[in-house]
Design goal:
51% of the residues lie in helices and 15% in strands. The protein is an alpha/beta fold and 321 residues long. The structure holds uridine-5'-diphosphate and magnesium ion.
């Protein structure tokens, strides 16, 4: 019945997180379904392949649009989360709730080049690669501010010992077993870019040019971006805690030397009214201590949240049971 080729072709699920995406949804759905259609006709992926739109608790008509898309296109499905849980959780929910042989996650605004999906699938089939990272070849479509902060951030991550793929966001292919492995991580503060490299297996990268959003505006304001950046460091590295210890140790050492100098100065009678130096020391030490306590508090806060082991999302409705 099946040609041998079709028999071997993996079932692909494209996971698309959507939050207030009414401006882009119809167009993105059309582009994605036609891209998937050509992968199916090329026998690269199985005819059961589908696109899963995950509505991350949108406040606009996104879910109604997803339902419409799902009824019009056979290869489109929808999943609505019970409320807004953020991009990382939406992608995670899509990966966990769908069953397929291979998954690709991509943003709803299609800033990532969808023609690269074919390259990713070929890497998976031809070279038995489990994880294929989409990597931006250049960042010329970004503002100078975004480019500068992004690069500084990657540098900070690597100083902190967090392993991430340079210039890779969440456009990636994952095989079923890596998705299963991902599901076994219990943490609530998701930072997929840090988690996926921890899984291991054979990986590859494909380059692409990232374009601008074709409609609508970014759902990632600076506040959400900073919070994701902070997760990336504090969920993956305990190095800031060690840096406090080192700072404390060096300050103590310097104070020790200063004390000896002061004693000698006092013995030789060369004492002066040291009000200024005392004030400087007190302020400096007070500052370091507050900073350190705050940082320790950050980690304790994390322990507090993680220990609850709260569920990361709930599914509200599905277009297909
Ligand atoms: N997104 C989401 N939940 C959120 C915020 C964003 O699912 O709380 C989705 C959004 O719909 C899009 C993707 O995450 O598909 C990336 O968001 P966006 O394109 O606005 O970010 P940017 O590309 O500007 O960094
Ligand atoms: Mg975007």
């Amino acid at each position: 019945m099946n040609t041998p080729n079709e028999f071997l072709a993996p079932t692909l699920c494209v996971v698309v997180p959507c939050y207030n995406e009414k401006e882009v949804l119809a167009e993105s759905a059309a582009r994605l379904t036609s891209a998937l259609e050509s992968l199916v006709s090329a026998n690269l992926v199985h005819a059961n392949s589908f696109i899963l739109f995950v509505d991350d608790g949108s406040k606009d008509e996104t879910w109604a649009l997803i339902e419409g898309v799902a009824s019009r296109f056979e290869r489109a499905e929808g999943l609505k989360l019970s409320r807004n849980r953020g991009h990382q959780n939406a992608v995670f929910a899509g990966l966990m709730e769908a069953s397929a042989d291979v998954f690709v996650s991509i943003d709803a605004d299609l800033q990532d080049d969808i023609s690269v999906i074919e390259k990713m699938v070929r890497e998976h089939i031809d070279n038995k690669v489990d994880i294929v990272y989409g990597v931006r070849a250049d960042r010329s479509s970004d503002t100078r501010f975004k480019r500068f902060t992004a690069e500084a951030y990657y540098r900070i991550l690597s100083v902190m010992g967090v392993e991430v793929v340079f210039n890779h966001a969440d456009f990636r292919l994952m095989s079923a077993r890596t998705v299963r492995a991902l599901g076994s991580y219990r943490e609530v503060h998701l930072f997929l870019r840090g988690l996926v490299p921890l899984i291991g297996f054979k990986t590859a990268t494909v380059e692409y040019d990232r374009s601008e959003r074709f409609a609508g505006e970014s759902k990632y304001p600076l506040r959400k971006m900073l919070s994701l950046a902070w997760e990336g460091i504090t969920s993956f590295s305990a190095r800031p805690l060690r840096m406090i210890f080192l700072a404390g140790a060096s300050v103590s050492f310097l104070s020790f030397i200063a004390a000896i100098v002061a004693i000698f100065a006092s013995i030789s009678g060369a004492t002066i009214a040291g009000w200024t130096s005392i004030m400087v020391m007190v302020a400096f030490l007070g500052g370091i201590q507050l900073l350190s306590i705050g940082l320790i508090g950050e980690y304790i806060g994390k322990i507090y949240i993680e220990i609850k082991d709260r569920p990361r999302y709930f599914v509200d409705v599905r277009t297909r049971p």
